[in-house]
Amino acid sequence: MSMTSDRGARPGRRRTVRRPGDITFHGAALASGLTILAILAGVAIFLVVEAAPVLTADPEELTAGGFGRYVLPLIAGTVIASVIAMVVATPVAVGIALFISHYAHRRVGTSVGFVVDLLAAVPSVVFGMWGWQVLAPRMVPLYRWLEANLGFIPVFGSASSTGRTLMTASLVLAVMILPIITSVSREVFLQTPRLHEEAALALGATKWEMIRTAVLPFGMPGVIGGTMLGLGRALGETMAVAIILSPGVFTWVLIDSGNSTIPAEIALNFPEASGLRLSELIGAGLVLFLITLAVNLLARWVVARRADFSGAN
Amino acid sequence: MSKRIDINDLNIYYGSFHAVKDVSMVIEPKSVTAFIGPSGCGKSTFLRTLNRMHEVVPGGRVEGDVLMDGRNLYSRDVDPVDVRREVGMVFQRPNPFPTMSIKENVLAGLRLNSKRMSSSTADELCERALRGANLWSEVKDRLDRPGSGLSGGQQQRLCIARAIAVQPEVILMDEPCSALDPISTLAVEDLIHELKSDYTVVIVTHNMQQAARVSDRTGFFNLEATGKPGHLVEMDDTQRIFNNPGKKATEDYISGRFG
Ligand SMILES: Nc1ncnc2c1ncn2[C@@H]1O[C@H](COP(=O)(O)OP(=O)(O)O)[C@@H](O)[C@H]1O
Ligand SMILES: [Mg+2]
Fold first, then answer.
1. Under an 8 A CB cutoff, do A201 and B56 touch?
2. Does the B5-254 domain belong in CATH 3.40.50.740?
3. pLDDT tens sequence across A56-93
């Protein structure tokens, strides 16, 4: 009873006040969100529609006698190169990030961070040329050594004489994704609550133990996020790989010529492609799109799985 | 498992700022020693010199001696890491490691000492520390849940469990109840009472009733003016400090006629 009359007496109370600023911001945020979704959907639709002819076409007319047989080796090349890049770059990036955030003097740390950030400003064509002209020839002795000493492992089965191999491309990719992983990791490491660092130190942790106990676990979701950004970049990287690699059919041997990646394949063949060949390349692009999407979902899942333990609660 | 601490003419600096001046005192083993005083007078700073945690702050340094059963914590050959393994610390705000479960939190210090332990030993040590911190019955069914999911008072007792799991000689507490509600505060105070049968306990508190309730000895810190270093005004049995202090400044502070 009293509630009813109360409500009747102050009808305006239950309506939240809508300020013009809030309305504008709400609208802008909503619009940008929808735009992103629309663009994403547009890209997906374009890829599916353009790639569709491949699925219905006579396998004989396709490059490798079937879309699967065509795209699988490319997927393998792409994923192998990106994963090697990620595996090589992540520890180095985390190391640099820790150095900057916890070991170096502030001034030294800032300059190191600046240099690493500069790396991100180098165009990928330049990385490609550097990998081709500088890195590849210098990798040849190492590849020869690997072949001689570890040749019984299939991936080191035979060595290239030019060094223009998937391994070289992977290493260049590693350098290219280093800055993004480093800067994301550095930011999260710097945000480690002082309280937790002191908790570890007060237990008698050495600096490294403190980092292992407090900094790394706290920063892990961020490192994973940075790594996935890096992986995304490596998966999609075109120019560097196209320049460095002398592409060929798929081979497990990573230190010999051969192999290719989806982006490089598209970049090298797109200009002259038409008709079914074009659809085939776009189909490969669709596959790359799906892989990248899957990687991102996986990253989210990994981060969310430990959300209880993130300290955000 | 408890040690006597002798502090001789200790001066503490942050860079060029002289934070605490000329402190000498004796801290008895198996007792609770409380420090009271207005904020900014250097209680935390002083407390942190007892396990060399002040060195974590850039520019933090001391002059003088801190002797633990006769061994100088500041002699050249002493590693601060070893000091902190002997002298545990509980902070103002509960700070369980957010990425660790309750059990992992309790065992964190033991894992640092990097002894491999069997899982049954680990369970046993975990239970003993949690029982020692009066927390076992409340968390025994959720040892694998995050420590940050506990209430503030439980988190603080988890931090105490973490500190005692490594079996230190001394436990330092910097305003351990200031972020807790009255009920949790009582639980922690009860615990402090029990801890002194095994450890040397040193506690900073801004709450005089708390000092009166939990401590055997009380030291009163003060500072003459802001920017001046803090100093120890007097230290005596808690009873005497609160009933019959030797110095006028202490009496004024105790009776609330301060400043
Ligand atoms: N990390 C620090 N760097 C520089 N000065 C500090 C730092 N921590 C505390 N101080 C200074 O030392 C003095 C004592 O502080 P503190 O020990 O925190 O006092 P209390 O715990 O009694 O409130 C204060 O003047 C404070 O500003
Ligand atoms: Mg303090």
1. yes
2. no
3. 888 888 888 888 889 999 999 999 999 999 999 999 99
Residue A1's pLDDT band (cuts 50, 70, 90): very low
Q: Are B39 and B222 in contact (CB under 8 A)?
A: no
| Ligand 1 atom 25: residue of nearest CA | B40
Give the span between the Cα atoms of B122 and B100, in whole angstroms: 15
- Which value does ipTM take for this structure? 0.92
pLDDT tens digits, A4-14: 444 444 555 56
Residue B99 to residue A193, Cβ atoms within 8 A = no
Residue B43 CA to ligand 2 center (angstroms) comes to 6
Q: What is the reported pTM?
A: 0.84
CA dist B171 and B90 (Å) reads: 7
State the pLDDT at residue A298.
85
Average pLDDT of the residues in B151-158: 93
The 10 Å Cβ neighbour count of residue A191 is 12
Distance of alpha carbon B216 from alpha carbon B30, whole angstroms: 10
Q: Which one-letter amino acid corresponds to residue B8?
A: N
Tell me how long chain B is. Answer: 259
Q: Could you give the percent of chain B with pLDDT greater than 70? A: 97
**Is-contact B48 B73, C-beta < 8 A?**
no
Q: How far is CA B58 from the centre of its chain?
A: 21
The CATH code for residues A65-309 is: 1.10.3720.10
Cβ(B94) – ligand 1 distance below 6 Å:
no
Residue A313 has pLDDT above 80, yes or no: no
Note residues around ion ligand 2 (Cβ under 5 angstroms). B 44
- Closest partner residue to B98 among A201, A202, A310, by Cβ? A310
pLDDT at position A217 over 50: yes
CA angle B55, B57, B61 (to 5 degrees): 45
pLDDT, tens digit (0-9, with 9 covering 90-100), for A22-49: 899 999 999 999 999 999 999 999 999 9
Residues from chain A contacting residue B95 (CB–CB below 8 Å): 193, 195-196, 198-199
Min Cα–Cα distance to chain A from B258, Å: 31
Minimum distance, in Å, between the CA of residue A183 and any CA atom of chain B: 22
Residue A202: both structure tokens together: 């007060």
Q: How far is B97 from chain A (nearest CA, A)?
A: 6
Within a 10 A sphere around the Cβ of A231, how many other Cβ atoms? 27
